[in-house]
Amino acid sequence: MQVSSTTIAFTVDDLEASRDFFRDHFGYTVAMAADDFVSLTREDGAIDLVFHRTGLEVLPENLRYRRASGAIVAFVVEDLEAEQDRLRAEGVEITLPLRVEPWGERLFMVADPNGIPVELLDWAGGAEEQQAAQS
């Protein structure tokens, strides 16, 4: 199997709020849009995001009103503290303050207006050091 891109889709009540949040705070641009969905992308190859409006009829009936539970959009970033400072300055509420996990992951979290959790993270000692430790 060869994967050319990856997209995750969420069903949300306020399509425009999620679109604006990821556009304004995370550099996404609108690739496609209609009344009941929007597709967002980034030039750097980060995962694409799609938002469906709750009740969208093209979805299977059992998914039309189901919102993701337990899903987290996670971004590995270069300067975690700078990203936290930037988001705070932009008025984004930090829902989980910066912390370091025993396995070396450093992270903090925010949430979009529809409640989608967004985790920003890096690795104590750097990603290369973590990969070497796992080998």
From TrEMBL:
Domain (VOC) ranges: 2-123
Protein name: Glyoxalase-like domain
The organism of origin for this protein: Actinoalloteichus hymeniacidonis
